Amino acid sequence: MQIPAVFQPPFRLLMGPGPSDVAPSVLKAMSGPLLGHLDPVFVGMMEEIKIMLRQVFQTQNEMTFPVSGTGSAGMEFCFVNLIEPGDEVVIGVNGVFGTRMVDVAERCGARVVKVEAPWGQIIDPAKVAEALKQCRPKLVAIVHAETSTGALTPVEEISRLAHDAGAMLLLDTVTSLGGCPVKIDDWKVDAVYSGTQKCLSCPPGLSPVSFSARAMEVARQRKKKVQSWYLDVNMLASYWGQERVYHHTAPITMNYALHEALRLVLLEGLEARWRRHRDNHTALRNALEVMGLGLASQEGHQLWQLNAVTVPAGIDEAAVRRRLLTEFNIEIGAGLGPLKGKIWRVGLMGETSSRANVRKFLTAFCQILNEGGYKVATDAALAKL
Amino acid sequence: MQIPAVFQPPFRLLMGPGPSDVAPSVLKAMSGPLLGHLDPVFVGMMEEIKIMLRQVFQTQNEMTFPVSGTGSAGMEFCFVNLIEPGDEVVIGVNGVFGTRMVDVAERCGARVVKVEAPWGQIIDPAKVAEALKQCRPKLVAIVHAETSTGALTPVEEISRLAHDAGAMLLLDTVTSLGGCPVKIDDWKVDAVYSGTQKCLSCPPGLSPVSFSARAMEVARQRKKKVQSWYLDVNMLASYWGQERVYHHTAPITMNYALHEALRLVLLEGLEARWRRHRDNHTALRNALEVMGLGLASQEGHQLWQLNAVTVPAGIDEAAVRRRLLTEFNIEIGAGLGPLKGKIWRVGLMGETSSRANVRKFLTAFCQILNEGGYKVATDAALAKL
User: Which residue of A has its CA nearest to B259?
Assistant: First the structure.
């Protein structure tokens, strides 16, 4: 057998729906000497990760830690621990990740009531209120920032409705955390999951999660064992808590990376980081306007970190993405589901969100569009930055 | 809030039950530029990982890839895909990981028949045969190398019995893969999982798995959806197969590390690597004999990569481990379950398995034992290397 050569990845500017660019110090952290998962030095670092995650999530929840899997494992973590067969769940569905929540919840035996909105629109609290009249859900689940459409659903009103109906609130913050306000305690979120590879700018591989005291109580009082051993919060609480009982071997180097990425988030400061995401989004949107290009997501609820740019008629969207990648080393994302072929997804997440990157992208993008027959005024667009 | 300082892990010699030491080129691989999970360059590397994993597992199975979680996620992957509620499963239980299999299988709704052996002993094929007379299992599952006890259960006879009874064979090779012969096709194993952080000497975070055509057919023909969305092989087959349908965001940098670690395994050659593990184990065992210390695992079935060293009377086993770690930067493992306090677990896995490391460990170990009142002839022991 031929043994493959050493893998040498090219440098890409990651402007898709995640992963985003990673700071050099985060990449470097992963090359540090390996420790055992029960080493007191590693355990001390786990404590620092928990403390920093609480800060980033804006929560006091004791049970705040990174699940040893990517964002979807975090989603599954929330449902398997909180849902038992027959439980009712209300889920907001306005994109890929709401759709995925329904699938995950049903695999836990949940009876799901969907609150739907067209892709690109937010979940309407009035429709949630209506759904809550028809069932007695244990949980209301929504996606804060829909990565597939670029829409940001406000949380507070839906949270109030859920709690008034006696339900817990579960929030997907995979794309929002670190890029725009996420306030778990203020918003009374009971269960939340996120990913590392979006606005935290850490490579994928961990899913930060947090459970309120109420969610932990629900998990503890279950009638039936959690269907996933790997994601059972009751056992994970012993490893990540004071007892340090061996559960599974934590991904050591991924935790090194997360530790450094969280440090960078807090050194910048959450509010400054949110402003940076907002300002670069605004600059991009203004430039796109000059080019006659709009965003497909609902006006007033557009994500700062993920821009769903509508593809103009007559342009081959896949060819544009391919040229950006192969000729300019810039990755952007395609549309999914009903938005397939209709939008490009341009991410400005974490490290990627800078004016220099917006300029680099627009310069290449304008050139490709012009050569493809869609004429844009490059200089006028760039002047908006 | 005080922001923690940059984390700077100390250098440790990892001689516990895993993780093991990692080659510098593997650590360095993780610091390479980050790619997206659908980038054609990353996808090309995924193909190389699959090809190399097949070689290491000694299998032609198409469905051979790393699950995006640690070894226990690989265990769960096998059970959730192959088991439906009510299915019968025979599981060999002679340590922590057989015990864990029972828990995982029961969470899938399996009716489990246990074939037990005292910790440190192997699973007796005669007892498996007996169990197979009492039930009609879909699956027989055993742990090849029990990391908690240091015993290696031979596979071929049990495989024959399982197949004669119409069952599939599931094998845990977390600690065996890369350190001693593992021959998935020759042994007719239908489903296998492993970990990266043992004899493959890659940081923890991925679980290499392989399903035979029969196992894939069973997963495809299920009546009920797989209870885990994250681990559903039918969807993962689309991402890791030719279609490249987005499922979850793969842990990019962990795959970089695995690619490099597999390269190193194949560059050394499997047989040479197995011999190295055998020879360093033999050297350690001979030296321990001079010191009057034995192994707690069954004679003739002792693992080369994990040595269960019996703690002599009057010695505080935890104090020895603590001194090794804090004064000599050497990590070894404690006993678990019924072996708690009775053994030390000394790993010689992957990069860790060298004569120099055996010498380094024994030198420190002898000093600590002598100072602790258990007198050993250090020079005579070291002369055995």
Answer: A7
CB-nearest to A68 from B69, B103, B325 is B69
What CATH code would you report for A24-267?
3.40.640.10
Q: CA dist A229 to A74, A226, A233, B17, Å?
A: 14, 7, 9, 21
Is A204–B37 a contact, with Cβ atoms under 8 angstroms apart? yes
**Residue numbers in B near A257 (CB within 8 A):** 253
Distance CA A305, CA A180 (A): 8
d(CA B140, CA B160): 11
Enumerate the CATH 3.90.1150.10 domain ranges in chain B, comma separated.
Answer: 270-382
**One pLDDT digit (tens) per residue for chain A, 385 residues:** 789 999 999 999 999 999 999 999 999 999 999 999 999 999 999 999 999 999 999 999 999 999 999 999 999 999 999 999 999 999 999 999 999 999 999 999 999 999 999 999 999 999 999 999 999 999 999 999 999 999 999 999 999 999 999 999 999 999 999 999 999 999 999 999 999 999 999 999 999 999 999 999 999 999 999 999 999 999 999 888 887 788 888 999 999 999 999 999 999 999 999 999 999 999 999 999 999 999 999 999 999 999 999 999 999 999 999 999 999 999 999 999 999 999 999 999 999 999 999 999 999 999 999 999 999 999 999 999 9
Cβ of B329: how many Cβ atoms within 10 Å? 15
Q: Smallest Cβ distance to B30: which of A197, A246, A253? A: A253
The pTM of this model reads: 0.98
Give ipTM to 2 decimals. Answer: 0.97
Nearest Cα residue to B171 out of B237, B117, B215, B126: B215
Cβ contacts of A103 on chain B, cutoff 8 Å: 229
Q: Which fold has domain B270-382?
A: Aspartate Aminotransferase, domain 1 (3.90.1150)
Q: Which of B19, B226, B227 sits opposite A36 (nearest CB)?
A: B19
Q: Which residues of A touch B76 (CB under 8 A)?
A: 228-230
